[in-house]
Design a protein that fits this description.
Layout lengths: L7 E5 L3 H13 L1 H4 L2 E5 L2 H10 L4 E5 L7 H10 L8 E5 L5 H9 L2 E6 L4 H84 L6 H32 L7 E5 H14 L7 E6 L3 E5 H17 L6 E9 L2 E8 L33 H11 L3 E5 L7 E8 L23 E4 L3 H13 L4 E4 L2 H11 L3 E4 L8 H10 L7 E6 L4 H10 L3 E4 L4 H10 L3 E2 L5 E2 L7
Parallel strand pairs: 1-2, 1-3, 3-4, 4-5, 7-9, 13-14, 13-15, 15-16, 16-17
Antiparallel strand pairs: 6-8, 9-10, 10-12, 11-12, 18-19
Helix pairs in contact: 3-4, 6-7, 7-10, 8-9, 9-10, 12-13
Length: about 550
């Protein structure tokens, strides 16, 4: 029964006259008492009505042919849905105690005797109608309360989730703030050294030894700045899965050994007990990225292990995997930090006197690069001051039968190629031109894209080093115009830019460049590319440009 429905009364009597009399009497008060009257001529008819409707009360004649009132009442109360419907038995004779007991056992709520007294009938019916109305109201209230409880439970869960997300965001924001503060610290240190060394070079009366040391400092700190920027960019690329791996079969043991040699050559391992057990183990991977992984793990061990500590580096094939394990006797990892040690912006206790420096993103980069290779990385530590172990597992492959790439033939020695620098940064262009001139290269310069195209077409240099972010027309348009000009088509075009994503490299090559180099450019790599572009005499004695080396 919904709130819009009236309570219903069922009158059951096989005598048509008695049925009409009762229903007519009840209908006189129906509007005032807000109920509806239905009728049935037999027990079977009454059961059908009970299947269709809910009733506030049933007036049931006792003496009916076939199924009498007691049997009908028993059948009605056997159904769970109608088991609680109150039944008033209507009978023409005064029931004795046995009949009353029998009626109550069948579920009778009351008796009416014919001839029915209207006032008594009305009073009894109103009681049950009011009771049905109240029960329906309580039922609706219970449903609303249940619905409200469900809503409140859902709201509470949502609020708890939002609070957890807010706390996580606050922790992440705090970690980012700490990271940015550390980034500023790490950037200012080399910048301060470079600035001081640069000022020293311009001071009068400075000894030659001091000038030499200043130059070494500038070079070393510039490389340090470059590593910081590279780490940030590599992490960004790895997180967005924009790093494309250049895979080939290689021996991890050889690669790790080479990394160790680099650390030894720079003096980083001085004062440490280094134990390297490197068994040959081959993987299908990107040599540059795998070197980053190994370097970061070794560098991390050196940073957090005091001088005199022990560092163990192991490479071993185990089943279908190649395992690289780096263990140290350093400061260890706190239990609460251990599950988050590979997360971005997470770092252990930061000490301002930590001599090795660093941004604390190396392990995040390691995890991303390992995952790109289809491997896994894990960390374990007994706790603070108990050392730590990092383990990399990569899919194992068969050893290469021969070198994957043949050694590049050395270009014919000839005259130095003429180089055109197209760069809008005056200081950067001047320094690059001075450096190349010191190596004997004739250098032309242009400060924007349009001037660069004009100089290239009129002077036809052998190589053009082109910045991408140029005023006027950008480096992409410079390359396209030079490739369309017959006089400049043979110039070897090298993009020298701060844009280093894989998408940037793709755009560079599509524009017509032969090579993509990222600033700050490694001097040895640049000189190698210029040597490859040296003009060599052809059969007729005319100089020609060597084919572009694969970039």
């Amino acid at each position: 029964m919904s709130l819009t429905e009236k309570p219903k009364i069922l009158v059951v009597n096989d005598d048509a006259a008695s049925l009409l009399a009762l229903t007519s009497l009840l209908e006189q008060w129906a509007d005032e008492s807000n109920y509806e009257v239905l009728s049935a001529r037999s027990g079977q008819d009454a059961l059908r009505q009970v299947l269709r409707h809910d009733f506030a009360v049933i007036l049931l004649d006792v003496n009916m042919p076939g199924m009498d009132g007691f049997e009908t009442a028993e059948a009605i109360h056997l159904r769970p849905r109608s088991a609680d419907i109150p039944i008033i038995f209507v009978t023409a004779f005064l029931a004795d105690e046995i009949d009353r007991l029998k009626a109550y056992q069948r579920g009778a709520a009351d008796f009416l005797f014919t001839p029915v007294i209207p006032q008594v009938l009305r009073a009894k019916v109103q009681v049950f109608v009011a009771l049905a109305t109240k029960n329906e109201q309580l039922k609706r209230q219970a449903e609303k309360l249940s619905q409200r409880t469900t809503e409140l439970t859902a709201t509470n869960k949502r609020l708890v989730r939002e609070m957890e997300e807010r706390r996580a965001a606050e922790r992440k924001s705090s970690a980012k703030d700490e990271f940015l503060a550390m980034l500023g610290h790490e950037l200012r240190n080399p910048l301060s050294a470079i600035s001081s060394a640069g000022s020293l070079l311009g001071m009068p009366g400075v000894s030659g030894d001091a000038i030499t040391r200043a130059r070494v400092i500038i070079q070393r700190q510039s490389q340090h700045l470059s590593r910081i920027v590279d780490d940030l960019l590599d992490l960004s690329r790895a997180m967005s899965r924009k790093i494309l791996l250049s895979r080939k079969r290689l021996d991890i043991a050889t690669l790790v050994s080479s990394c160790l040699d680099t650390f030894r050559a720079t003096g980083r391992t001085t004062g440490y007990d280094i134990d390297a057990q490197l068994a040959p183990a081959w993987v299908d991977g990107d040599a540059t990225r795998l070197e980053q992984i190994a370097t970061n793990l070794i560098d991390n061990a050196l940073k957090y292990t005091p001088a005199g500590g022990r560092i163990e580096i192991t490479v071993v094939p185990i089943g279908e995997d190649v395992v690289l394990r780096v263990s140290d006797s350093g400061v260890g990892i706190a239990p609460d930090l251990l599950p988050h040690v590979f997360d971005v912006f997470v770092q252990g206790a930061i000490s301002i006197d930590r001599s090795q420096g660093g941004l604390g993103i190396g392990l995040s980069l390691v995890r991303r690069l390992v995952e790109l290779h289809g491997g896994t990385v894990s960390a374990c530590s007994p706790g603070n001051s108990s050392g730590s172990t990092f383990e990399i597992r990569l899919p194992r492959t068969d050893a290469a039968l021969s070198a994957d790439t043949p050694a590049r033939a050395r270009p014919q020695e000839a005259g130095k190629p003429k180089v055109l620098l197209i760069e809008d940064n005056d200081d950067g262009r001047e320094m690059m031109a001075t450096m190349l001139a010191s190596f004997g290269y004739p250098v032309l310069q242009a400060g924007d894209g349009l001037e660069g195209v004009r100089v290239a077409c009129s002077e036809t240099p052998d190589v053009a080093l082109v910045d991408i972010g140029l005023p006027g027309i950008d480096g992409y348009e410079v390359a396209r115009r030079l490739r369309q000009d017959p006089a400049a088509r043979a110039i070897r075009l090298i993009a020298v830019t701060g844009y280093g994503l894989e998408e940037d490299q793709r755009r560079v090559m599509e524009a017509g460049f032969d090579l993509h180099l990222v600033k700050p450019v490694d001097l040895n790599a640049l000189l190698e590319q210029l040597a490859a572009a040296a003009p060599a005499p052809d059969d007729a004695g005319r100089p020609q440009i060597q084919p572009a080396a694969a970039g």
